[in-house]
Amino acid sequence: MDTADWRRRVFALYGAVRAAGDLAEGHALWRAGRDELLATHPASPVEERDGFRGVPVGEYRPELRFEVAIDTDVEPVRWEVPSATDGVIPFSRVGVLHLPAIGDLDVWWLESYGGGVFVPVKDALAGSHTYGGGRYLLDTVKGADLGGDIREGRLVVDLNFAYNPSCAYSPLWTCPLAPATNTVKAELPVGELTSDL
């Protein structure tokens, strides 16, 4: 039930972010909400909570927010991620996002758990200031969704909301990490970081 409650709270958090009056306000809500969940929730992946003071987060940069069309003219690709607890987690590539001055990111459809859109990203700071395996931008099955008209094939992709997967906090978690097609050459000093810049 702890995991179900975690997901419910994440859905509510992203709903509050989408309803916020401006981008900076929404980002502040997200940052505070993520820190609270990681510090206090029973389903948090953070093992050492006594010394936990929150995750370093880069300053909000509005130029790193995009509302983009999903380019669906792609060859189908299947991506299978082995996990310690759930067997193989299957994904299918359903499109590509072309982010100006950043690069291209594959859009994945989760073929289990009822489905969902998943977009991870690994940037040039991975391993130094961002998590080495990459971060998540969208994971609709878990509520991490900033909006866009999905029926029209458009997504809001805001790199300021890139967050660390659970395995960044504990080796007990198995996470799908960004594949090569979701790796960009740009430095993204925004979202959740592993160290201050």
Structure overview:
- It comes from Kribbella pittospori.
- This is DUF1684 domain-containing protein.
- The chain has 197 residues and is of the alpha+beta class.
- The chain has a domain at 53-182.
- Helices cover 18% and strands 23% of the residues.
- The protein has 2 helices and 7 strands, in the order ααβββββββ.
- It has helices at residues 2-19, 23-40, and strands spanning 65-69, 78-82, 88-99, 103-110, 116-121, 135-139, 154-158.
- The strands form 2 sheets. The chain has a 5-stranded antiparallel sheet with strand order 2-3-4-5-6, with no helix packed on it.
- A hairpin with a 3-residue loop joins strand 3 and strand 4.
- Helix 1 packs antiparallel against helix 2.
- The radius of gyration is 16 Å and the shape is globular.
- It starts with a helix and ends in a 39-residue tail after the last strand.
- The relative contact order is 0.19.
